[in-house]
Design brief:
It is a single-pass type II membrane protein. This protein is an alpha/beta fold. The chain contains twelve helices and eleven strands. The protein starts with a helix and ends in a 7-residue tail after the last helix. It binds 3'-phosphate-adenosine-5'-phosphate sulfate.
């Protein structure tokens, strides 16, 4: 009888143990499931009001705050990672080659970028930082969030606003010979408005005196030294990288090497990612992000420019020379615009 009682209580204990193990497994599996579906992100953030660059040592999936714009959208809950403020922004310049640079960077597995230009720091600042963060793609730990809006470089308020988001933001400026850039800018406007007056009638305030009209944005944008002064009030030079728009065409892998170093990324994007497309006249990607087929940039990039009288271009070149020299001095780089 005593023996039977001992055997029965041992059996009972075994059953309890099995139940215990099952319950623990169930708990673990539930936790795993929630983490994989991104629900762990919904835990209240420890420091979500701080931008990413300013959050000390937290795993990135712990830093995301609840996403009001997403509501209960299951497709979003199912995605991995979290939305972060950009740690690096291509701030300019318009027609410098900013799209090419962003598309080349997107090949890198550790770069995630918004495709469209957000224009947050110039046009939509009143929408607030959370609106901006929600535009960003989700990133995993170790990945960099990026965006490009070339008009930031010439927006007076932009440096202070970017600084207010994070003083650690890395800034990339793609610069191109200001004369060619002005013609490229004009070509773009002309494509939207074929009735536009000629380049020469817009570039001069007084053509007989040869006075350049600096109020015309196509001219003003190219005075790089002036705009850079504005950024240097907030950011040290070490936080900025100047990419040569010319070299981005002639040696894309070389420029990409510098950009990846600046961003603290492994040099993944190299020569083997590019081929020169003779028809386009530009380097193109063998395998752009999300595609296995070679692709060049669209028709609006690498357009033929209208013929501008050489004396007009010479006058414009004279106008830019002192500003270019100042810019070389400020950046410590000679871009070779003659
Ligand atoms: N790989 C490649 N393919 C095509 N185009 C290239 C490339 N690399 C640089 N570029 C030059 O980029 C110029 C357009 O500059 P952005 O992309 O900064 O223009 S924009 O401000 O976003 O409208 C564009 O100017 P245009 O030639 O005047 O069209 C190009 O010269």
């Amino acid at each position: 009888m005593g023996c039977w009682a001992a055997g029965s209580s041992l059996g009972h204990l075994k059953a309890q143990c099995r139940l215990c193990v099952c319950f623990t497994m169930l708990l673990l599996l539930t936790y795993l499931f929630y983490c994989l579906t991104g629900c762990c992100d919904l835990a209240p953030s420890l420091s979500s009001s701080l931008p990413p660059g300013d959050r000390p040592g937290l795993p990135r999936n712990l830093t995301a705050s609840p996403d009001p714009a997403e509501g209960t959208d299951l497709s979003v809950l199912n995605s991995f990672g979290s939305k972060e403020f950009p740690q690096a922004i291509i701030i300019g310049v318009k027609k410098g080659g900013t799209r090419a640079l962003l598309e080349f960077l997107r090949v890198h597995p550790d770069v995630r970028a918004v495709g469209a230009e957000p224009h947050f720091f110039d046009r939509f600042y009143e929408k607030g930082l959370e609106w901006y963060r929600n535009l960003m793609p989700r990133t995993l730990e170790g990945q960099i969030t990026m965006e490009k809006t070339p008009s930031y470089f010439v927006t007076r308020e932009a440096p202070g606003r970017v600084f207010a988001m994070s003083r650690h933001t890395k800034l990339i400026v793609v610069v191109r010979d200001p004369v060619t850039r002005a013609v490229s800018d004009y070509t773009q406007t002309l494509s939207k408005n074929p009735g536009l007056p000629s380049f020469q009638s817009l570039v001069f305030k007084n053509s007989t005196m040869g006075l350049i009209d600096t109020s015309w944005s196509a001219v003003r944008i190219g005075i790089y030294a002036k705009h850079l002064e504005n950024w240097l009030r907030y950011f040290p030079l070490s936080r900025l990288l100047f990419v040569s728009g010319e070299r981005l065409v002639t040696d894309p892998a070389g420029e990409m090497g510098r950009v990846q170093d600046f961003l603290g990324l492994k040099r993944v994007v190299t020569n083997k990612h590019f081929y020169f497309n003779q028809t386009k006249g530009f380097p193109c990607l063998k395998k752009p992000e999300g595609s296995s087929r070679p692709r060049c940039l669209g028709k609006s990039k690498g357009r033929a420019h209208p013929q501008i009288p050489s004396e007009v271009l010479l006058r414009l070149r004279d106008f830019y020379r002192p500003f270019n020299l100042k810019f070389y001095q400020m950046t410590g780089q000679d871009f070779g615009w003659e």
